[in-house]
Amino acid sequence: MIKHLCKLVWNRKRINFLITLEIFFSFLVVFGVIVFVVYYADNYRHPLGFNYQNVWGVNVGIQRKSDNSDRQQLFDTTKQLLAGLRDFSEVESAAAVIMVPYSRGNWTSGHTVRGRNVGYWVNFMTDDAKEVLGINIVRGRWFGKEDDGANYKPIVINRKTARDFFGDEDPIGKNPRELFDKDPNRPQNEEKEEEKPERVVGVIDDFRKNGEFKDLYGYMIYRNDLKLPDGQAPRGFVLKVRPPAAAEFEEKLIKQMQAIAKDWSFEVKPIEQMREENHKEYYVPMAAFALVAGFLLIMVALGLIGVLWQTVTQRTKEIGLRRAKGATARKIYKQIFTELMIVTTVALLVGVLVVVQFPLLDFMGFATKKVYAVSIVLSLALIYLLTIVCGLYPSRLATRVQPAEALHYE
User: Fold this and answer.
1) What is residue 191's predicted lDDT score, i.e. its pLDDT?
2) What percentage of the chain carries pLDDT values higher than 70?
3) What CA–CA distance (Å, rounded) separates 314 from 410?
4) pLDDT of residue 190
5) pLDDT tens-digit profile of 28-81?
6) Each residue of 85-100: pLDDT tens digit?
7) Which residues fall within 8 angstroms of residue 240, CB to CB, at 6 or more apart?
8) Using CA of residue 110, residue 72, residue 142, residue 172, what is the dihedral sign?
9) For residue 192, with 0-12 CB atoms within 10 Å meaning exposed, 13-18 middle and 19 or more buried, which class applies?
10) pLDDT surpasses 80 at 272
11) Which is nearest to 346 in space by CA: 1, 3, 6, 4?
12) C-alpha–C-alpha distance, residues 222 and 154, integer Å
């Protein structure tokens, strides 16, 4: 039966080729949209790693000297600002950071570890950041007084960084830099040793500073004690506020900070607002792509219905002859519908063969194998559903052809 239907499809190859081409390009467009949707949905389900409710972020603009001779002054001003922030009754706790969650800036780093390129983001935070952001320690500890005057640089890493550097080993107390591969092109006498070795003191959840939709990335947090030589001048502050903190407090906050640091600029926003703005950057393009894909699918659906309708009309004599020879309406319906499924399957097989080449060409390399597989399955299901819906009425229309119509067909 299938062999006979394939022969019928081949005999009408000109019309069926156009249908195949239409379905093929529809699959590519649908897959392109769905792979992003599945990718972002997969990212969203992972832990964020920090709390954004009742937390405000302050991005700071500082004019610094190129020779860093003003570092001590920056530290002193930062300490005054932190003390001033904590004096507000609306503020439960405050901390200085290099990068505020959901802000655009990132401090990236990467090294070769055991022959693999390992990338991660870097942040410097004062001790109160854990309380402000609600960071969850899964192993070891956070920064504390025990790190004062230590002969090492304490660092906290997220789960991914722990896996990338140490695998299944316990990272607590170890120095990640000892795992860095030596550069064979660099003279040995140029290798500089750290003044203090780094030491992992804690592991946190998979901290994703850029939000829920961003892919999982390594993260390494250094302790910022606001002292020379290891401290870093902050570019922001995070505040845990007591609800309900209103716009009036924001104005009072900026006024107080501006009084302490007259040459600095401050931008204050609730982290929840920054989160909404971050999400819009993903929603808007996705909505635009989905709108284009939806419009294309509507055009494809109308085209399929029209072509199938015309096909049924052109095949009145053939269908009438089959009815005259005893074919039931159900068999006619099954024939037309199965022919459409054969054409659709051929188009989708070609489409799948094309999209599985994308990872080999490093196209859409951001998607994992799981995301890719789920996207292909969903795209196939959607296109099959579309063709089934489009083929229902023309197939039913074919069942209404009577033998007498074939005799009078011109």
Assistant:
1) 47
2) 82
3) 10
4) 47
5) 888 988 898 899 989 988 889 999 999 999 999 887 777 777 888 899 999 999
6) 999 989 999 999 999 9
7) 54, 55, 91, 92, 93, 94, 131, 132
8) positive
9) exposed
10) yes
11) 6
12) 6
Write down the pLDDT at residue 366.
Answer: 79
Residue tagged 């009408």 (tokens): 12
Task: Determine the length of the chain.
Answer: 410
Tokens read off for 48: 């964020």
- Quickly tell me which residue has 């910022």 as its tokens: 224
| pLDDT tens, residue by residue, 183-241 | 655 555 544 555 789 999 999 998 999 999 988 889 999 999 998 887 888 889 999 99
Print the SS3 string covering the chain. CHHHHHHHHHHCHHHHHHHHHHHHHHHHHHHHHHHHHHHHHHHHCCCCCCCCCCEEEEEEECCCCCCCCCHHHHHHHHHHHHHHHHCCCCEEEEEEECCCCCCCCCEEEEEEECCEEEEEEEEEECCCHHHHHCCCEEEECCCCHHHCCCCCEEEEEEHHHHHHHHCCCCCCCCCHHHHECCCCCCCHHHCCCCCCCEEEEEEECCCCCCCCCCCCCEEEEEECCCCCCCCCCCCEEEEEECCCCCHHHHHHHHHHHHHHCCCCEEEEEEHHHHHHHHHHHHHHHHHHHHHHHHHHHHHHHHHHHHHHHHHHHHCHHHHHHHHHCCCCHHHHHHHHHHHHHHHHHHHHHHHHHHHCCCCCCCCCCCCCHHHHHHHHHHHHHHHHHHHHHHHHHHHHHHHCCCHHHHHCCC
Residue bearing tokens 């600002």: 81
**pLDDT value for 328:** 63
